[in-house]
Write a structure and sequence with these properties.
eight-stranded mixed β-sheet
Length: 227
């Protein structure tokens, strides 16, 4: 099992590193920024990710499913630092226990923040320590779930959204709770699932899985032209 776990992880790391943006977007103007951490790990011979349910106490996005993350602080060194700091604050994940793999292309959130998705591997044995003022639950989802049609729904023609608005309903076998995963979080989960697993989703994702960079760059520039 250990050999299979290492092989799955090594293959995913090698694939995802090809999509690291490096300095490709260093020319962007100074904008309000945020980062999310997309934590990956291998369990039962499958790649999984961790998602959080935002606390009902929050002023924005209360009760929504998200990856750990938040706004950039002036003291943050870069996008990776923001993602790791927020994950530490929200779910108690020590930064030194994250093997950062890549930073994917930035995307705009519905609040107008430029969000950088940071992908990293964590240990399967990690036990979250929730900050109740920010997070009310943490749950694991197999990445393959985000490539299947079975629990996927799409809404078209949503204002401010290019392509379909993706939505999933996931029942957590550990707790029995059902979670609604939608919007930017669903899109990022689908993207990382397709890239890491080298698997084309069973539904129309709205962009070319073989060359997602071109699509997201076009969307980014379209939004920037309206600022």
């Amino acid at each position: 099992m250990y050999g299979t776990t290492m092989l799955l992880k090594e293959e995913a790391v090698a694939t995802l590193k090809q999509f690291d943006i490096g300095e490709k977007f260093s020319y962007l103007p100074v904008l309000p920024k945020a980062s999310v951490l997309i934590p990956l790990f291998v369990r039962g011979g499958q790649l999984h990710t961790l998602l959080t349910l935002r606390s009902q106490e929050l002023r924005t996005g209360a009760g929504e499913v998200c990856f750990p993350g938040g706004k950039r602080d002036p003291s943050d060194q870069d996008d990776v630092h923001t993602a790791l700091r927020e994950a530490h604050e929200e779910i108690g994940l020590p930064p030194d226990q994250v093997e950062v793999v890549c930073t994917l292309f930035p995307v705009f959130s519905k609040k107008g923040l430029l969000v950088s998705p940071v992908v990293g591997f964590i240990e399967e044995t990690f036990i979250p320590a929730l900050n109740p003022s920010e997070v009310s639950a943490v749950f694991a989802v197999p990445l393959d779930f985000f490539t299947r049609e079975k629990d996927h729904y799409a809404t078209h023609g949503v204002a401010g959204v290019t392509g379909p608005l993706h939505s999933f309903y996931f029942r957590d076998p550990a707790s029995g709770n059902q979670y609604h995963i939608w919007g930017l979080t669903a899109m990022l989960a689908t993207l990382v699932g397709a890239l890491a697993l080298k698997k084309k989703p069973e539904f129309n994702v709205g962009f070319d899985i073989l060359d997602p960079f071109t699509f997201f760059k076009k969307i980014l520039h379209k939004r920037l032209s309206k600022l």
